[in-house]
């Protein structure tokens, strides 16, 4: 029994690192040229910057070289190249600025996604108030 429990604990602990929140977020866009024609199957350099609310202080940046889809779509994992954990999300309001092939395309405020707003409430929950909580024996071997 102890051997089985040891193997189970080792197995589950292997998922601990995998199940942590990734320090990345998705960004998707359709690229068009100056005439408004979709840039299908083309390579582009995408420069991503995250700026503080003063719109001057850059706290994060990374460059992606991508190939658009036949519809001109690009998909980025922001934080995949540079370390996104350097951004102190609690200290300020942040904006994302995107440049394509050296041309600034625009800037937009980063807002919370619904699951993040819900997850924030967890910090205020008292474990004793939770319904259907697991029963953990004092001696785990039991």
Folded structure, characterized:
By secondary structure, the chain is an alpha+beta fold. It has two helices and six strands; from the N terminus they run αββββββα.
Strand tally: 6
Number of helices, where a helix is a run of at least 4 consecutive DSSP H or I residues: 2
User: Looking across the biggest beta sheet, what order are the strands in?
Assistant: 3-2-5-6
Proportion of residues in helical segments: 10-25%
Jot down its keywords:
single chain; 142 residues; alpha+beta; four-stranded antiparallel sheet; two-stranded antiparallel ribbon; 6 strands
In short:
The chain is an alpha+beta fold and 142 residues long. It has helices at residues 2-18, 114-119, and strands at residues 25-30, 43-52, 58-67, 73-78, 94-100, 103-109.
Strand-helix topology:
Blueprint: H1 2-18, E1 25-30, E2 43-52, E3 58-67, E4 73-78, E5 94-100, E6 103-109, H2 114-119
Antiparallel strand pairs: 1-4, 2-3, 2-5, 5-6
